[in-house]
């Protein structure tokens, strides 16, 4: 029988194979062909009543799941996620946002702080709406606000963002830009938390220190190994004596399940939290610099956070919206080279459509919020 680490190593190699779509060819629902990593031939993977069989020597010798079987399972799981993916589309303002009717007419001009805006009304349900949903009463346009958020979370300081907007003819203070970020990050977070990501069965957790008002704090984060989806986060005053149960519970609520494998360093709090929240999970605590049980994926994400913190010269509050905004940016906005230009949300079955993803999320979040309030008032 293979040890747990050997099985995990084969699974990691299977993930590497499945990460290239052309490596796994589906012949039918019971047969797949998988390219060899060391040659130009293919192995045949067949589904039987007892499970998957592979024609490779490793499976013939061990009679256990080999890397080619893992690759097939991961490829089929990814295909299933794509088929069942949640698509967040830009709102269609050619029809009523409430009832979907196309019987809409112009209904006057609103004199907004950012300029005059056409208002529409629906003949079917009588509701009114404008194209700047979510940005009403704002001094800047939706395009300027979302550009500011994009610049900020890609690493620019608030004052550099302010200078850029001035070149576009938008005169706002850096404090106003920070207020935009706080407002819209909170709105997006509430909306996106309602969408369950389709993450894999292997998760990673790690911690890094951050400065909050000059004091040392620790950011604990949980990430999906396959999609790199940032599942949950927790800020703590301590490293060794922190109770990570809250982080693990939040991750389980977000993903709607617990992982089969958890990879962390040897920090004692991970072992305690895993035993309490993930009682059926295999916990790997022997992180290495090389091999398959390294934590390089988490280190890449930690680098994103560190780059943002350096520009800010530390955080101002423990419950800052900046970290939540970074999580939104990492998962739903930023394309990752390690995912062939996809976002973690794409790989986790959540597709944000539109050229301006910030705008798509904000307007859908606003629409959802108002629908919920309307339903409560009706009931």
In brief, what are we looking at here?
The protein is an alpha+beta fold and 379 residues long.
Features of the shown structure:
alpha+beta; globular; 4-stranded antiparallel β-sheet; 5-stranded mixed β-sheet; 379 residues; 4 domains
Widest sheet: strand ordering: 11-10-9-12-13
Structural class: alpha+beta
Portion in beta strands: 15-25%
At the fourth CATH level, what is the homologous superfamily of the largest domain?
Ribonuclease H-like superfamily/Ribonuclease H
Roughly what percent helix? 40-55%
Strand segment count: 14
Count of runs of 4 or more consecutive helical residues: 12
Whole-angstrom Rg: 24 Å
- CATH topology descriptor of the largest domain: Nucleotidyltransferase, domain 5
Task: Tell me the number of structural domains.
Answer: 4
- CATH architecture of the largest domain, by name, is 2-Layer Sandwich
Shape: globular
Order of helices and strands: HEEEEHHEEEEHHHEEEHEHEHHHEH
Largest sheet: 5 strands, mixed
**CATH hierarchy class name of the largest domain:** Alpha Beta
Structure explained in plain terms:
This protein is of the alpha+beta class and 379 residues long. It has twelve helices and 14 strands. The chain has helices at 4-18, 57-62, 67-83, 142-153, 158-167, 174-192, 245-255, 268-277, 296-312, 321-333, 344-347, 357-378, and strands spanning 24-28, 31-35, 42-48, 51-54, 86-88, 104-112, 115-122, 128-130, 202-212, 215-224, 230-236, 261-263, 282-284, 350-352. A five-stranded mixed beta sheet has the order 11-10-9-12-13, with helices on both faces. Strand 7 (115-122) and strand 8 form a beta hairpin. Helix 6 (174-192) packs across helix 10 and helix 7 packs across helix 8. It is globular.
């Amino acid at each position: 029988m293979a040890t747990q680490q050997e099985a995990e190593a084969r699974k990691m190699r299977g993930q590497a194979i499945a990460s290239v779509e052309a490596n796994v060819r589906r012949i039918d629902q019971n047969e797949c062909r998988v390219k060899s990593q060391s040659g130009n031939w293919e192995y045949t993977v067949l589904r039987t009543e007892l499970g998957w069989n592979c024609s490779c020597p490793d499976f013939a010798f061990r009679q256990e799941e080999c890397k080619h079987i893992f690759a097939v399972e991961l490829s089929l799981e990814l295909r299933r996620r794509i088929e069942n993916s949640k698509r967040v589309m830009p709102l269609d303002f050619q029809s009523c946002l409430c009832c979907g009717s196309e019987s809409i007419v112009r209904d006057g001009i609103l004199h907004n702080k950012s300029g005059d805006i056409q208002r529409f009304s629906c003949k079917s349900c009588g509701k009114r709406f404008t194209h700047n949903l979510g940005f009403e009463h704002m001094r800047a346009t939706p395009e300027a606000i979302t550009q500011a958020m994009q610049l900020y979370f890609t690493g620019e300081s608030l004052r550099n963002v302010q200078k850029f907007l001035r070149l576009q003819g938008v005169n706002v203070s850096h404090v106003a830009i920070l207020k935009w970020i706080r407002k819209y990050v909170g709105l997006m977070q509430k909306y996106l938390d309602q969408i369950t990501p389709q993450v894999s069965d292997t998760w990673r957790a790690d911690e890094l220190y951050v400065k909050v008002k000059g004091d040392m704090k620790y950011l604990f984060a949980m990430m999906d190994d396959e999609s790199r989806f940032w599942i949950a986060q927790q800020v703590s005053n301590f490293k060794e004596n922190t109770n990570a149960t809250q982080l693990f519970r939040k991750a389980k609520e977000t993903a709607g399940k617990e992982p089969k494998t958890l990879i962390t360093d040897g920090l004692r709090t991970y072992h305690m939290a895993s035993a309490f929240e993930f009682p059926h999970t295999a916990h790997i605590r022997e992180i290495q610099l090389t091999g398959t049980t390294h934590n390089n994926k988490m280190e890449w994400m930690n680098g994103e956070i560190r780059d943002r913190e350096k520009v800010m010269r530390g955080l101002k509050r423990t419950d800052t919206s900046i970290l939540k905004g970074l999580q939104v940016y990492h998962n739903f906005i930023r394309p990752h080279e390690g995912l062939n230009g996809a976002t973690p949300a794409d790989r986790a079955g959540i597709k944000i459509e539109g050229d301006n993803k910030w705008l798509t999320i904000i307007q859908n979040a606003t629409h959802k919020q108002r629908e919920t309030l309307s339903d409560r008032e009706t009931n």
